[in-house]
Amino acid sequence: MTILVVGSVAYDGLETPFGKKERILGGAATHFSASASFFAPVQLVGVVGGDFDEKELDFLKRRGVDLAGLQIQKEGKTFFWKGKYGYDLNEAQTLDTQLNVFAEFNPALPENFRSASHIFLANIDPELQVKVLKQVQKPKLVAMDTMNFWIQGKRKELLNTLRHADCLLVNESEARQLTGEYNLTKAFKKIRSWGPKILVVKQGEYGAMLFADDFVFSAPGYPLEDLKDPTGAGDSFAGGFIGFLAKKNAPLTEENLKHAVVCGSTMASFQVEDFGLERMRTLTKKEIQERFQAFKKLSHFEETLIL
Amino acid sequence: MTILVVGSVAYDGLETPFGKKERILGGAATHFSASASFFAPVQLVGVVGGDFDEKELDFLKRRGVDLAGLQIQKEGKTFFWKGKYGYDLNEAQTLDTQLNVFAEFNPALPENFRSASHIFLANIDPELQVKVLKQVQKPKLVAMDTMNFWIQGKRKELLNTLRHADCLLVNESEARQLTGEYNLTKAFKKIRSWGPKILVVKQGEYGAMLFADDFVFSAPGYPLEDLKDPTGAGDSFAGGFIGFLAKKNAPLTEENLKHAVVCGSTMASFQVEDFGLERMRTLTKKEIQERFQAFKKLSHFEETLIL
Questions:
Q1: Which of B292, B300, B307 sits opposite A305 (nearest CB)?
Q2: Phi, psi of A121 (to 5 degrees)
Q3: Rounded to a whole number, what is the distance in Å from the CA of B131 to chain A's nearest CA?
Q4: Domain boundaries, position B271
Q5: Which CATH number belongs to the domain containing residue B40 in this structure?
Q6: For chain A, how far is it from start to end, CA to CA, in angstroms?
Q7: pLDDT tens-digit profile of B206-234?
Q8: Is residue A307 part of a domain?
Q9: Contact B258 A219 (CB under 8 A)
Q10: How much of chain B exceeds pLDDT 90, in percent?
């Protein structure tokens, strides 16, 4: 199985209580690819400018990520995002967004990308998300992200993209804004009526919840003593979640979806341990497997209650 | 085993997006007792005024709660709290607090209360909490709650009470305010150094976390579609948590403590389904056992991760 991701490859400026970075590699597609590449082959679709140092992606190439779909607009500049976090790392304050080459991005899939089995439409213009879907043949799974900017500004287009998606991955405030429902169970029902049969709500340090027709699953956040930078946690989560499903070519059963959520939470828990993609560069499969087990210890309990 | 609780028996005025109550039975000791009584015999220590309708507690008597420690100050008025919640039911806005008979409360334990095995010091003046501890003989477990008011106003007295406690149950903001640490793992280390070997952090709709020397446990919040009133959820949690440990006379092992947290979460999930103590009046052991199992389905996953 092969995973295709479309989304940003970017430079980020970051400020957290634990450090500051002027300009480091970031972007949703980058974070997703780094994470998913531990599970299955990844094909990346995106765009960068002439200022982009391609060597920055060498570690993704080494991890088998196919960059044939990454356009380089020599005259343009790479997407730049600058954000700041307080001690409550759940909410970023955006200080600067420079769309640059992303403003005119027109995703074009190389021929061998069109048969990808698992698609992740990272957070970009919903019209671009649909353009990508029009170029692929019968994927097994279409998952997508979005954000408040599109929920407000391109609601009609977003609802159109949702009709084609199996799974929506968003954070709590996005789920609420999109549906007008504070209660997440009610929010899922509305989203379900628009198309996606699975809703994953990312809850930052509180973990993640998955809603499906016949069950709900909740995975905790991993209790780290030292978090440095939450940027990319959501995309790392998506990488582990979709990565697991692609690796196993797994049907969307309750057991597989629960397992996928824990893979997502595991990858996100590493992502936040360091700035940018630093942790992903040194991460090993052994560490992933060990933390997956730690999630079991963290959330499982034995015995039946007898009153 | 017998559980002793000291805390408020009160009238509450409540306003949530789902309804309004002018004056209904409430109070930490009341909520705790109702919940714990499903697990083990409960002895209640508190005070009410001449305006209190004792019939309100008939259902607690029927559930075996011993009210011999409830003082009635005929000339005084019962403690009254008025609060309001928005759609985010995690945070109450206090509109009115009338301490009334609680201002001069001096807890005196009936003779047969002094040998209780499990003690819950609900959220009251830490000096009163210590007064209760001085009257009991060698309990197996001392658990306590507190709030921002005492953390700010009686820090020295609170730290003194903590020295005598095995377990502190507080919400996130209280754990942070008490320790000056945002990170809960770090907050636990500080609290540990003051005495309690167990910290339970109540996280509202996100569930609860338990920190001990050699493990951390996280239980999700139960995804209810209809919540009416979160008042008393924390005390219902404590009732299920301590109730389970008392029922089983359980040593504080990892397995027992995890189980106790899920019992706490189970009881809290019922508590919020209706105003005041309404849900507790109709709750059955069968419903409790079923929801306990639902927590298993909600948070357990199978398989080992092979990469």
A1: B292
A2: -90, 95
A3: 33
A4: 3-299
A5: 3.40.1190.20
A6: 48
A7: 999 999 999 999 999 999 998 999 999 99
A8: no
A9: no
A10: 93
